[in-house]
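Q: Here's a chain of 314 amino acids. Please give me its 3D structure as C-alpha cells.
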Amino acid sequence: MTDLDPHRELSELVRAFRVHLEVQRSRGAYAAEAAPMPVPSPALVPSDLEVWAPAARSAPVAPAALPGEPSESPSRAEMQAMLADVSDMLDEPRRAPVGPARPAASAPAPGGEPVPQHRASRMSLADIRAELGDCRRCKLAQGRSNIVFGVGAPDAALMFVGEAPGFHEDRQGEPFVGAAGQLLDRMIEAMGWSRDSVYIANVLKCRPPQNRDPEPDEIAACQPFLAKQIEAVAPRVIVSLGRPAARLLLDSNAPMHALRGRFRPYRGVAVMPTFHPAYLLRNPERKRETWDDLKQVIAELTRLGVRSPRPPKA
C-alpha cells in the first residue's frame, strides 16, 4: 500500500479550500452554518455526489490539477503563502450578498398564524370606493337609490359579509340598517364587539328588485370589489351571512345546513358560514344554532390572540 505524503495532502486540502472560499465569496457568502454538514447514505447518493460519502479505496487517487494551477506539489514557501491567503479570506468582514434585498419574513402572530406584510401595498377602502364610482356594471344600477359599499373599522379583525342591500339599506346607503340589521347588531354585541369595531359588507352593492337572490351576472360584477374590500381590511375571521355569501366565498353549491357550523378557508382567512339575520327573523328557532356558530368565531379569535373590546356573553 502506497504511503500518503502529508505535505502533498495538506497542499491539496488548502488548494481545494481556497477554491471553495472563492466560490462562496463570488456568491456573497462569508460565513458558514455552525451545524455540521449532513452526510448522505452512500446507498441513496448518486455517483456524482460520492464526494460527500467517499468509499474506501486501496490507494489514494491524486486529484486533477485545477485550471491554472501546477500539477506538482508546491514548495513549503508556496504552501505558506496559500495558508496566508486563506487566513486573510477568513479575516475579511462579512458583506451582504449582492442582489435585491429579500422581503421581510412574516412575523408569527399569536397562535402561530403569519401576519400579512403587504398592507402598505394594497388598496385602501377609499381607493376601492373611488374605483367603484357611480357603478353601471350591471342592470341593478337602473333601479337603485344608493350604492351600499360597507361600514365599520377599516382594519377590523372580524368581518361580516351579507347578501345584498334591502329597502332601508338602499335608502340610507349603509348595510344592515333595517330589522335584520338590528338583529345583527345584537349578535355582534353578544360577541363582545360593536358595529363600529367590525367591518360589514355585502356581496352586492345595489338592491335587487323585491329583494330577490343575486343573479350570476350581478355577482360577477360585484365580486371583484368585495374581494378587494376583504384584502384591504385583512380580517382574521369572516362570518358569511346566508347562502349567497357562503357560496361565493367558499365556491360551493352545498345547502346552508351543510355549510354552516364549520370553518372553511377563503384566501387564507377562516370563514364561518351561518344563517342570515333576515332568515332568523322568519325562523327564530335557528338562533341557537347561529349562536353556536358565533361562539366558534369567538374561540377562533381568542386562539389567534384577538380580544373583543368587551367580554362576550356566556
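Q: Can you summarize the key feature?
A: The chain is about 35% helix and 10% strand.
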